[in-house]
Design a protein that fits this description.
- With 90 residues, the chain is of the alpha+beta class.
- The protein has 3 helices and 5 strands, in the order ααβββββα.
- α1 packs across α2.
């Protein structure tokens, strides 16, 4: 997380270190959950992180134009919550 967010979470009471630790623990828990078989993780008021499978596909090398195989993989997608979308687009 960026410093202004940690500072705001700490509310200026010199507990920025504790706020940073809370955010790190939360992020670690989400990563562990998704890495060990969880299909999604909800962040209340922010949105949902979902795992999505991508299939193998053919792409192009932008420098040479040569076709290259892009391997299948699992990616994380973020779906924003309605509250977040409404706050950004009043």
């Amino acid at each position: 997380m960026n410093n202004p967010f940690r500072y705001r979470l700490s509310d200026g009471r010199e507990v920025e270190t504790q706020a940073r630790r809370v955010l790190e623990v939360q992020a670690d828990a989400i990563v562990e959950h998704l890495a060990t078989g969880g299909r999604d993780a909800t962040l209340p008021g922010l949105g949902k992180l979902k795992l999505s499978a991508r299939i193998t596909r053919t792409g192009r090398n932008p420098q040479t134009g040569e076709p290259v195989q892009i391997p299948a993989r699992v990616v994380v997608k973020f779906a924003p919550a309605k509250a977040l979308t409404d706050a950004i687009n009043p």
